[in-house]
């Protein structure tokens, strides 16, 4: 059944339910049959437009903005090309207005994402949540001790595990208050563990140390700690840079599972080479090598458990090492400790080289997937875009690489990004652009890899990270609430500080695209340009636009 048929069925069912709700007040006399319902042209137009509207909303939810706009335009065309126009009769006019309002809402929601430049929100890091919990040893049972000793003897791991009261208490913690957290972390680890083990083996360190990431972040790539450590391996900025992890306005490779795992393996190996003991190396990974070295000198021992007993280290570090030992033991035989774990499948992907800043919603559209999937595969991208000024290898679902590459190559340059660009005029400065777009000068400089004091050349094309517009918030208010944007669609008053722009239509332009470019609505464009029809846009024609953002 096609989408139009589904919408017609929905309308028919709605009428049937409405009749039932009124108790069948107009029941037919016995022996009579219902007269066939004639589907008039208006009903067909509304049903077809609603089908395009629904398809556009679904594409919008998936982040496919170009496809969404195409569907929205088709819906509007059906009304505008109806005999007599969209306002020819009351039922058609009401549906047309409803459709316009729905389209505007979804377009403003897309704009509220900050033109692709809003930074992705981090998640809390596990080490902040569990590292400071009190580890009580008094309640550890003899039954648990025997089970753990058996696991340690029979395990096929490559790291020597200490079975003591602190480790047993951590296992008890995993089975009790942290049970749900631990089970979810084990399952999530399936995405990354095979790759982590492979990297650790190649770097010559124990593969069991893969579970350091469980304690640090619960295998969450977006984890950010109070100490500003980020990613699965919780690198602080300085240590991340020390081991080659790029951190700039566009990318933070501390959140890249592939690159940060290699860096973590190299750091752990370096720590072991310095301390010649894995427990001390792990303590240093948590507290820093300087603090551990000073504790060793102060207390005259290189035994981590003695340092812990003497409280020579902070509580988080005293807990950290036994929590890792405990995690390794439980992960070797989770069913023995009451966990029924189904690991998530290993993340696989194709890599597609992308030149310059391309909106991830465009990438998702070309890869026939949702933008959330693209973000999950590329967690190191801080924005909803690939980096400007360089080639970036973006990951897409397996099997979609060739199609995505061909699709991106075929898309015109001006459709590869949905955010704003600006070609510099003579004498323009970052401060002037800041006033024009409402962006901070340092954000414009960072987005384009510029020094704030550098002189800018005329003709240079810059990426402009525009803050989410206040208008988007106003437009998303519930129906019936008056806002400045829906009181009138005429030319704005001077108090709004808008300017009039004559926009020359380009090949492939749509009204929704032009409206998004100037942060306005299709309704406003049609109000400012009498007789305008979306289906009859012609390259070279000029539209009148009132905007705060001339470009």
Q: Would you write up a description of this structure?
A:
With 551 residues, the protein is mostly helical. It folds into four domains: 3-17 and 40-111; 123-337, Lysozyme; 350-415, no CATH class; 420-547, Roll (Membrane-bound Lytic Murein Transglycosylase D, Chain A), CATH 3.10.350.10. It contains 25 helices and eight strands. It has helices at 3-21, 41-61, 65-80, 90-111, 126-130, 142-154, 165-175, 179-189, 193-202, 212-217, 237-242, 257-275, 278-287, 289-299, 304-309, 315-332, 360-366, 371-377, 401-410, 430-437, 441-447, 470-475, 484-487, 511-517, 522-528, and strands at 123-124, 223-224, 350-355, 391-396, 420-423, 461-464, 499-504, 542-547. The strands form four sheets. A two-stranded parallel sheet has the order 1-2. Helix 13 crosses helix 16. The longest helix has 22 residues, at 90-111. The chain is elongated, with a radius of gyration of 30 Å. The protein starts with a helix and ends with a strand. The relative contact order is 0.10.
SSE diagram, text form:
Elements lengths: L2 H19 L19 H21 L3 H16 L9 H22 L11 E2 L1 H5 L11 H13 L10 H11 L3 H11 L3 H10 L9 H6 L5 E2 L12 H6 L14 H19 L2 H10 L1 H11 L4 H6 L5 H18 L17 E6 L4 H7 L4 H7 L13 E6 L4 H10 L9 E4 L6 H8 L3 H7 L13 E4 L5 H6 L8 H4 L11 E6 L6 H7 L4 H7 L13 E6 L4
Parallel strand pairs: 1-2
Antiparallel strand pairs: 3-4, 5-6, 7-8
Helix pairs in contact: 1-2, 2-3, 2-4, 3-4, 7-16, 9-12, 12-13, 13-14, 13-16, 17-18, 17-19, 20-21
């Amino acid at each position: 059944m096609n989408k139009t048929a589904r919408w017609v069925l929905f309308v028919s069912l709605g009428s049937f339910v409405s009749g039932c709700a009124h108790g069948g007040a107009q029941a037919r006399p016995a022996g009579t049959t219902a007269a066939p319902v004639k589907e008039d042209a208006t009903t067909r137009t509304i049903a077809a437009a609603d089908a395009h509207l629904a398809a556009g909303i679904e594409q919008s939810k998936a982040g496919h903005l170009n496809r969404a706009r195409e569907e929205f335009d088709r819906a509007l065309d059906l009304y505008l090309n109806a005999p007599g126009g969209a306002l020819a009769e009351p039922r058609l006019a009401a549906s047309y207005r409803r459709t316009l309002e729905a389209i505007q809402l979804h377009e403003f929601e897309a704009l509220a994402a900050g033109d692709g430049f809003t930074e992705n929100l981090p998640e809390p890091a596990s080490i902040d949540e569990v590292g400071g919990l009190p580890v009580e040893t008094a309640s550890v049972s003899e039954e648990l001790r025997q089970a753990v000793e058996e696991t340690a003897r029979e395990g096929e791991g490559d790291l020597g595990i200490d079975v003591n009261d602190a480790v047993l208490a951590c296992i008890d913690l995993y089975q009790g208050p942290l049970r749900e957290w631990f089970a979810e972390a084990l399952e999530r680890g399936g995405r990354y563990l095979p790759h982590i083990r492979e990297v650790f083996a190649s770097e010559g360190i124990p593969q069991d140390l893969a579970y350091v990431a469980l304690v640090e972040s619960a295998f969450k790539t977006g984890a950010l700690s109070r100490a500003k450590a980020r990613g699965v391996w919780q690198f602080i900025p300085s240590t991340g840079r020390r081991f080659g992890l790029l951190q700039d306005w566009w990318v933070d490779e501390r959140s890249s599972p592939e690159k940060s795992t290699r860096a973590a393996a190299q750091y752990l190996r370096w720590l072991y080479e310095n301390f010649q003991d894995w427990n001390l190396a792990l303590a240093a990974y948590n507290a820093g090598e300087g603090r551990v070295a000073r504790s060793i000198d102060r207390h005259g021992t290189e035994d981590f458990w003695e340092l812990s007993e003497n409280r020579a280290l902070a509580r988080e570090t005293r807990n950290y090492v036994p929590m890792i030992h405990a995690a390794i033991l439980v992960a070797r035989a989770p069913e023995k400790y009451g966990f029924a774990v189904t690991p998530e499948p290993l993340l696989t992907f194709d890599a597609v080289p992308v030149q310059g800043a391309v909106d991830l919603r465009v990438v998702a559209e070309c890869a026939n997937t949702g933008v959330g999937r693209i973000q999950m595969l590329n967690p190191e991208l801080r924005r909803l875009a690939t980096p400007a000024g360089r080639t970036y290898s973006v990951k897409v679902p397996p099997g979609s690489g060739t199609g995505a590459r061909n699709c991106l190559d075929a898309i015109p340059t001006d459709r590869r990004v949905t955010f704003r660009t600006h070609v510099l005029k003579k004498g323009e400065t970052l401060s002037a652009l800041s006033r024009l777009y409402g962006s901070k000068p340092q954000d414009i400089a960072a987005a384009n890899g510029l020094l704030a004091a550098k002189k800018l050349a005329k003709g240079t094309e810059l990426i402009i990270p525009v803050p989410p517009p206040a208008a988007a918030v106003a437009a998303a208010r519930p129906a019936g609430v008056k806002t400045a944007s829906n009181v009138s669609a005429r030319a704005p008053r001077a108090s709004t500080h808008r300017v009039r722009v004559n926009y020359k239509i380009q090949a492939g332009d749509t009204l929704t695209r032009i409206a998004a470019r100037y942060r306005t609505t299709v309704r406003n464009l049609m109000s400012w340009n009498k007789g305008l029809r979306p289906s009859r846009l012609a390259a070279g024609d000029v539209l009148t636009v009132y905007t705060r953002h001339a470009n």
